[in-house]
Amino acid sequence: MAIFKCKMCNGNLNVIEGNTVCECDYCGTQQTVPSDSGEKKVNLFNRANRLRSDCEFDKAAGIYENIVAEFPEEAEAFWGLCLCKFGIEYVDDPATGKKVPTCRRTAFDSIFDDADFERACSCADSTALTVYRAEAKEIDRLQKGILEIARNEEPFDIFISYKETSEDGQRTKDSVLAQDIYDELTAKGYKVFFSRITLEDILGKDYEPYIFAALNSAKIMLAVGTSFEHFNAVWVKNEWSRFLALMKNDRSRTLIPCYCDIDPYDMPAEFKHLQGQDMSKVGFLQDLVRGIGKIIPKGSAQGGAPTVVQVSGRQAVGPLLERAFMFLGSNEWENADQYCEKVLDLDPKCGRAYLGKLLSEFNCRREEELGNLSIDITASSNYKNAVHFGIDLEEQGTKAVYNSACKLLAECGSYESLAQAKKYFERVARYGDSTEKLEECAEKLAEADELTESFRDIFRSYDASTERTNAMALNKVLDASEGIKKTYPNFSGDEVPQPWRPTLLNVWLIPLGIGLIAFGICALLAERTSDNLVLSLIALASPFVSALIAGIANSVARDCFSGGYFGGIVALSIGYTVGLGILMSIVEKKIGADMTSCWLIAAGLLLIAIAALTIALYCGKSSKIRHYFRDNKRLNKLLDEMRDARENDISEAFANKKMTKELINDCLSIAQKSYK
Q1: DSSP letter assigned to residue 222
Q2: Which residues pair with 224 in a beta bridge?
Q3: What are phi and psi of 303, to 5 degrees?
């Protein structure tokens, strides 16, 4: 089984499956490892790390690129590319004996601005991210130190790259030839970087700042070599490959390969498009000097001119920043924010300006106060920009997230707030007692889930759409109620309407019909008997009595009966009787008494029939209305019973739960919205 090798000492790592950070048992260095230990991936990483340890940065970067192509979410591969770009080699610290990074390829851009570093951070988990940022912070410190030294170095016209010593420790032929070139060019007034002589006064120091300054100021590089192996020696290739990278962005730079004792086709493939110089030819130096003179005309050589290596072209922003932080100290948040904006107008990558805006955003006077907040400050764009541009806010951000999680857990106001607290504790799992708090939060969430599901079951059991007996009955009542309301929209209320008054409104036709029948029969008998007077009196009395009874029934049904109203009914009845008698006497003369009596009897029967039909129709309607009101009462009673039973079940569900009232109500609301 393949084993990961330590990036610092190349010892075997004991990696626990699933962990992305481990500690080397040999050098004691904590370091990140790939996300899984597949044999192919392990072999690729070990090979790339070995090449990088040997300072074969370009070859190592090629392998890391292959890993990225096959595993595009592998954070460790992007971190490897980042280490190669900045030429990071881990060496022993004489003071502590620990492995510390040293930079072999400085760049003007900060590591925090590097795209590969950003990808590594975005793909890493929280544990690996902490290690990446700590290492990046140290690399950034090294880088700034190198740039500070480089800023004060004099510029060079020409950089000579060559291999100084052979494998047996002797001086190479390349070194001798390179010194001949150096002597000739310096005699012509050119400022030449030749490490054997240029760096002899800084023995024991890190050469990288001086090499970096020379590479970035030189217009010409002479790559001197007498064999393919010497051209591709680690430090030689490190120099000419960096110069080729500079040439891509600056066409005024020129690299001239100078070879001897080898075929031009045996030089590195990167030199094939370049015009080389054969040092074995007679007059080589004269041709070389004349060619350099065309690139750097006489009189334009640096020759001790002021430094041209600049770390940045940004304007000085110190006074504006100082003013901004003075405003923060006096709680003038808006003014502080405005001055930070002025700084960013001059320097868009100023991390302290974003820090000032962050402090202003959360009304903090000092950086330390951010850690006392109970707000997720890491979500702020100002926080992200400040960290991105080199401000170390990890401690404050972690503490603020932890405080926010503790606050949400203590309040326990809703299910959503508990879930958010759990996410926060997971993010800061290694801080303080976050692990214990996370377990407590998970327990409360589980209890809330259980209570919510209990509430859902209760709502389901009392839902009219379930198969419970009372629910089925409730559905029938609801359907009947809807039908009644559609048919008789004017009826409403809880009281069942009494039918007798509407019935009286229809019954008053019956007395009139009986009176007409009695009148007709008496008139018919009066024609056939001798007792005409008695029958005539009975005939006249019949319509009077019937009209009187009909009038009383009508007035009672309309609830307008009174003594004066009764007198009016009597008068109307008398008028009705007299009018009927006059009408009969007139009609008798035309159609005869018998025929008139028959018509009276027929009219009376018709009135009775109309009244009977009207009453029958109304009684059916009245019956339905009575059923509706009865069912409505039954419905309300059933609803009340179900509501009371449901409330009792709900109360019993959380009776023994140690939760806040707000959380219980939130669980109840969630259950009510989602039980179906």
Answers
A1: E
A2: 258
A3: 50, 45
Helices 318-329/351-361 angle, 10° precision: 20
Q: Which residue has the higher pLDDT, 50 or 613?
A: 50
With contact defined as beta carbons under 8 Å apart, do 216 and 309 qualify?
A: yes
Tokens of 471: 């629910």
- Long-range interactions of 630-637: CB distance < 8 A, separation 24+: 630/496, 631/477, 631/480, 631/481, 631/484, 632/481, 632/494, 633/494, 634/477, 635/474, 635/477, 635/478, 635/481, 636/494
CA-based radius of gyration for the chain? 53
* Joined tokens for residue 27: 């050098």
| Token digits of residue 592 | 């005869």
Pair 650, 458: CB distance under 8 Å? yes
Locate 359 and state its tokens.
Answer: 């402090």
Strongest mean pLDDT among 27-41, 287-301, 397-411: 397-411
Residue with tokens 């079940």: 649
What is the distance between the alpha carbons of residues 262 and 24, in angstroms, rounded to a whole number?
45
Of 547 and 94, the one with more pLDDT:
547
Mean pLDDT value of segment 42-48 = 88
* Sign of the C-alpha dihedral computed for residues 630, 636, 637 and 638 taken in this order: positive
Structure-model confidence comparison of residues 290 and 105, the more confident one: 290
Query: DSSP letter at 281?
Result: S
H/E segment holding residue 193: strand 192-193
- Could you give the CA distance from residue 357 to residue 353 in angstroms, rounded to a whole number? 6
Residue corresponding to tokens 């032929």: 173
490 burial type by CB count under 10 A (0-12 exposed, 13-18 middle, 19+ buried) = exposed
Helix (H) / strand (E) element for 88: namely: strand 88-92
CB atoms closer than 10 angstroms to residue 283: 8
Query: What gap in Å lies between CA 54 and CA 32, rounded to an integer?
Result: 19
C-alpha to C-alpha distance for 439 and 435, rounded to whole angstroms: 6
Burial classification of residue 669, based on how many CB atoms lie within 10 Å of its CB (0-12 exposed, 13-18 middle, 19 or more buried)? middle
CB-based contacts of 478-481 (< 8 A; 24+ apart in sequence): 478/635, 480/627, 480/628, 480/631, 481/628, 481/631, 481/632, 481/635
Cβ-count burial 14-29 (b if 16+ within 10 Å, e if not) = ebeeeebbbebeebeb
Amino acid at 384: K
- CA nearest to 247, candidates 145, 150, 147, 159: 159
Grouping H, G, I as helix, E, B as strand and the rest as coil, residue 498 is coil
Q: Helices (H) and strands (E) in the chain — how many of each?
A: 25, 9
Backbone angles phi, psi at 257, to 5 degrees: -75, 130
DSSP-derived secondary structure for 621-637 = HHHHHHHHHHHHHHHHH
Segment 481-494 shows an average pLDDT of: 58
* 3-state SS, residue 230: helix
Residue with tokens 């951000």: 397
